[in-house]
Amino acid sequence: MSREVQCGFLPLVDSAPLIIAQELEFAAEEGLNLKLVRQPSWSALRDMLALGHIQFAHMLSPMPIAMSLGLGGMPAHIDALMVMSVNGTVIGVSGDLADSMQAGGWTNRFRDPVATAQALFAARTDRIRIGVPFPFSMHRLLLDYWLTRDPEFDLNRIEVVTVPPPQMANAVRDGELDMFCVGEPWGSVAVQQSGASLILPGAAIWQFAPEKILGVRHDWAELNPETCLAMIRAIYRAARWLDKKDNKPLAAEILARSQHLDLPDHAINPALTGTIPVRLGAAPVDTRNLLFFHRRAANFPWRSQAAWIADRLARIHNIDDTTANATARECFRTDFYRNALMPLGVDLPGASGKIEGAMKHETVVASTRGQMILGPDAFLDGAFFDFRL
Question: 3-class DSSP state for residue 51?
Fold first, then answer.
């Protein structure tokens, strides 16, 4: 007899592992009757999980850490059982701001964060209003990491506001935003519907940023470990299926259905294929590692990634970094992930952890079955982050 579980999600391409797990019956094969509950905003999803109205959630990677630290409106002890997607964020500007940047001599190559930041601040002397989907999001952390490295950065020159992803295009079109950082397909929708230009992928700031995780309340996970392990296995299989090139057309067709993203294929394909038009009418740019779901141990909940997130949250919100680091590492449940997949013979990373940013290229590392390939995971400034220090 199958166990019914409810999982909240937002209509983003990176919700695909959940949707595929349901539609292709990977969840059913694990004994789960998976019900997907679409949410209008990250705050609504956060509250649904914290209050126990859903058992699982498609979440921004900083959300479990922020909630466990008591940041935001609904504190709760939340665990991340696995990473569901890596990268997938795009940064865009209004058509007017893009024109001003280009008038100053900037060329949009969709890959140069240093030159792009310089052009951005040179084009606007007044405040730049930037939309992000949620205060505790990888979007917000990547923006902070990117912009604070420019010599012209001044906190008073930017205003960061929260805009739900499906509303981002309208906010740009109506002149409420100069700039945005959002997950696909909503960047592409802003290009198609508001004349925006995409100026950077999130991967240009951090090449291996954990974007979405599978969240669960800590107390519920401790009481229902077998259901959690089954859910991990189902999503792992869906993520592996999604990263196979031949499956992408069917994936786009499934995601486009009304109960999921309710968008045409041409709005969904850029993220799945990695070829994305940066402005209306432009030829698509081939963007390596724009978004992926499984390869290079993408699903592993690295505690080093959790610690980096905690470090950035501590800086932004002026909280103790030692406490934040310890809380973050407890949130990312490598134990659940290993227990779910090790009996299946899945190749898993070794136990030593890793230094974030240290792999400039694909790197062979030790694994439970011998060796596996990780990286690249470089930051835009070449910095390293060792969570063990």
Answer: coil
Question: And the tokens for 294?
Answer: 């499984």
pLDDT (0 to 100) of residue 28: 98
Nearest of 76, 69, 22 to residue 238 by alpha carbon: 22
Q: Which two tokens stand for residue 1?
A: 């007899």
Give the tens place of pLDDT for each residue, 148-179: 999 989 989 999 999 999 999 999 999 999 99
Cis ω before 376 (30° cut-off from 0): yes
Domain ranges of the chain: 3-86+210-261+292-347, 89-208+281-291
CA distance 373 to 367: 9
How much is the CA Rg of the chain, to the nearest whole Å? Answer: 20
Is residue 52 within 8 A of residue 217, CB to CB? The reply is yes
Burial class (CB in 10 A: 0-12, 13-18, 19+), 361: exposed
> Do residues 385 and 355 lie in contact, with contact meaning Cβ atoms separated by under 8 Å?
yes
The CATH architecture annotation of domain 3-86+210-261+292-347 reads: 3-Layer(aba) Sandwich (3.40)
* Distance, CA of 48 to CA of 5 (rounded, Å): 14
Confidence of residue 389 (pLDDT cuts 50, 70, 90): low
Long-range Cβ contacts of 223-229 (<8 Å, 24+ apart): 224/55, 225/336, 225/339, 227/3, 227/5, 227/32, 227/55, 228/81, 228/336, 228/340, 229/336, 229/339, 229/340
Mean pLDDT across the chain, nearest whole number?
Answer: 96
Largest Cα–Cα distance in the chain? Answer: 64
- Structure tokens belonging to residue 119: 């052009």
For tokens 């740009």, name the residue. Answer: 172
Q: Is the domain 89-208+281-291 a CATH 3.40.190.10 member?
A: yes
Q: What's the confidence (pLDDT) of residue 66?
A: 97
Cβ atoms 156, 127 nearer than 8 A: yes
Amino acid at 200: L
Q: What whole-number distance in Å separates Cα of residue 368 and Cα of residue 210?
A: 22
Write out the two tokens for 185: 């397909």
Same fold, 3-86+210-261+292-347 and 89-208+281-291: yes
- The string of pLDDT tens digits covering residues 258-291 is 999 999 988 999 999 999 999 999 999 999 899 9
> What are the pLDDT digits (tens) for 336-367?
999 999 999 999 998 778 999 999 999 999 99
